Structure formats: C-alpha cells, structure tokens
Amino acid sequence: MRSNPRFPLPLPLLALTALVVAFMLVPIGLSVLAGLVNNYSAGLKSGLTLRWLGEVWEQYGGTVGWSLALAAMSVAGNLVIGVPCAYALARSRSRAARLFEELLTLPVAVPGLATALALILTYGTLQGFRQSFGFILVGHMVFTLPFMVRTVGSAFQRHELLALEEAARSLGASFGQRFLGVLVPAVLPAIVAGSLMVFTLSVGEFNLTWMLHTPLTRTLPVGLADSYASARIEIGSAYTLVFLLVILPVLWLLQAVGNFIERKHGI
Fold it and tell me: Which GO terms describe its cellular component (predicted)?
C-alpha cells in the first residue's frame, strides 16, 4: 500500500487495514489450498495434486463460458436499457418517476429467491424460454439494472451536464446528438463503473440463478453449490480455485479498462 509521504498513514490505521485484508484473504487461501492437496484431512502431508482441478473442469467446465456470456449479455442489456432509463429518471421531476425509481430497486431489497419465484410464476409456462439461458439472463437483468441506473443516473444529475446539454440544445443539436455526442461521453466513467459492477454481480449471482436454472442451464455459482453438496471437500475447493482463476483476470482487465477510460474522459 502506497501512502503520500506528506501525509503518512497512522500506524494503527495501517495495522487495522492489514488485519482486515488478512481476515478476508486467509479463508480464501485455505480454501484454495484444500483444492490442491490429495487429502484435506491430512493437509500438506498428503502432497499436492492437480487431480481435483481436472475432475472439476471435466464435470463443470461448460459452466464457465455460459457464466461469462451471461455476464457480458447482462452488461450489454444494461447499456441498452439502463443508460437511457437513468437519463430519463435524472431529468424527470414527476412523482411517477420517483415511484418507478423506488420500484426499480425492489429486486435488490427482496431476496433473490422471491424475485425468481415471481419470474417463474409469470413466464414459467413458456417452456422454450423457461429451459433456456435467456430466462436466467432476464433474472440477472432484473437484479443488476438498479445498479447501472443508480450509478449513471447520479452522473447525469451533475449541474455542469445540465448546462452543457442546454448549450448544445441552443446550438441546434438534436436529442440524439446531445445524448450520444455530448452526455454519454461525459458520463462514460460512470457507465464503465456501472458495467464493471453489473458484470461482477452477474458472474457471482447465486440465489436467483439457483431457482431459475435447469440441469442444462447451470452457471459457475450453481456448479459450485452442486460440487459442495455432492462431492468431497477437495473438489468443492478446487471449484473455488477454478472460479478465481476464471473471474480474477477478467475483473482486473475490466478495472484496467475502466481506469484508462476515466483518465482519458473523466471530468
């Protein structure tokens, strides 16, 4: 951790930060280690192996691609629906808009199981749709949309953007030119932050997905739960390692892209 030499961090604060980091990382490290030993009960004395990783990949490898694809499609759907929705809510002062904004956050407050049950009751009779990944995608969209709308909506409400939009309007710019040519570039860092949040939430979402999935539409978290429930602890821990190996490089890449865009377009 780097600190500004002009404002060194107090030692107690550094110690507390290190303690929190250790508290979070030690369980992950032990879980990963459990997936790399021959016998968890015997510990490192039993020797290291990649056997469990191989078994996990053979049984659940197909869930990796679908989880990443669902997360990418959730981001795309949020960009198409969430960004215009955020603009509309940011510019509207009507009571109906405020009510809609509150309703939009309900899937975050309500347990995912309840949201999934509502979707099943409403669309469960559409067998082709119910058996597809599209059904899970709808659930992920319902769950993640509030995060994109809230994040981007706050950026649209900045006073300087109101003045910028009014200036573009006075110069004769159409709504499309103002929205795509002026406003969206101005709030691009917020859009990137919202996209990163949506991707992360979609990849790790379990409660809602567990209710919506079928044996043919499993995702990474659902496969992880299956491995914990039906196999030995070494396989479950190896699945955790696979999850980390898949998701961490993607998140680091997205974070780097977000930082790059913020440096280039942040205002």
Answer: plasma membrane
